[in-house]
């Protein structure tokens, strides 16, 4: 087992998540497509255009070996992503909602085939920086990260148009599990004695318990133990929104219970599972 914990295979869930998204999008009115989302400056149409960008980018890079847009001189990864995502979204404003739906449906099967071609324990096509910046990611974590992104963007659309859904445990539990893999990175700035354990409990039908332990000079995902030195408990809705900054750290802390080492609980309640 690596610092990232036990592998998880979410590949069978991509078609299920996509069917839920497409059913939602086909039921939207023209007014719905123009409603603002939690993503600053983006309406529903923009978020869907961004999902299309993700499909195209992963197929182009992973299947065809296309390098994509280049970094500008001195550009950071967050800056690069903000720029290229914004450029693509602006371009997709020329595309009708009907055609966006058709393109997602058409390309989804090709994306599924790309994931199916990957060995889960092989090196990732793209490292997951929010899980570790100094250790190469396995493919299962990279693929899982993409699943979480698609699921979260669907929820952003659902929130904007007041259409709850796609939160059944089969779809949501893997999102929470994958976001919990950010625990070691969240705790990285806190040196503690060997064997120190910090535990996160997420309440709800899709929730669970995850721990990070101090081992060999760094934090690793570990099996939950009986007496963690720090413990944070929050509900499942709070956790995924915290991890994607759909709510602020302060809001998440107001909705959480903590005990033990206050520096560790503060780090855990600042967990981030997106590039920002």
From TrEMBL:
Coiled coil: none annotated. Pfam families: MDMPI_N (PF11716). InterPro entries: DinB/YfiT-like, Maleyloyr_isom, MDMPI_metal-binding. Keywords: Isomerase. This is Maleylpyruvate isomerase family mycothiol-dependent enzyme. One of its GO terms (molecular function) is isomerase activity. Gene3D superfamilies: dinb family like domain. The keyword Isomerase applies. Residues 17-157 form the Mycothiol-dependent maleylpyruvate isomerase metal-binding domain.
């Amino acid at each position: 087992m690596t610092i990232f914990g036990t592998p998880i295979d979410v590949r069978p869930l991509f078609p299920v998540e996509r069917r839920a998204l497409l059913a939602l999008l086909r039921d939207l009115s023209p007014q719905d497509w123009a409603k603002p989302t939690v993503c600053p400056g983006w309406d529903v149409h923009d978020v869907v255009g961004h999902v299309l960008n993700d499909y195209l980018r992963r197929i182009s890079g992973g299947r065809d070996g296309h390098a994509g847009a280049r970094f500008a001189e001195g550009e950071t990864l967050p800056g690069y992503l903000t720029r290229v995502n914004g450029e693509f979204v602006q371009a997709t404003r020329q595309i009708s909602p009907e055609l966006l739906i058709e393109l997602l449906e058409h390309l989804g099967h090709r994306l599924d085939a790309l994931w199916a071609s990957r060995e889960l324990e092989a090196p990732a096509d793209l490292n997951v920086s929010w899980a570790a910046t100094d250790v190469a990611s396995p493919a299962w974590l990279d693929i899982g990260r993409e699943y979480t992104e698609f699921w979260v963007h669907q929820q952003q659309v659902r929130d904007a148009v007041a259409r709850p859904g796609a939160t059944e445990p089969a779809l949501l539990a893997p999102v929470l599990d994958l976001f919990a893999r950010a625990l070691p990175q969240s705790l990285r700035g806190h040196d503690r004695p060997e064997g120190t354990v910090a535990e996160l409990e997420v309440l709800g039908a899709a929730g669970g318990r995850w721990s990070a332990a101090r081992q060999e000079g760094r934090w690793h995902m570990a099996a939950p133990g009986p007496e963690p030195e720090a413990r944070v408990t929050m509900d499942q809705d709070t956790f995924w929104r915290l991890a994607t900054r759909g709510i602020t750290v302060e809001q998440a802390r107001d909705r959480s219970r903590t005990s033990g080492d206050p520096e560790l609980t503060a780090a855990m309640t600042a967990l981030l599972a997106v590039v920002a």
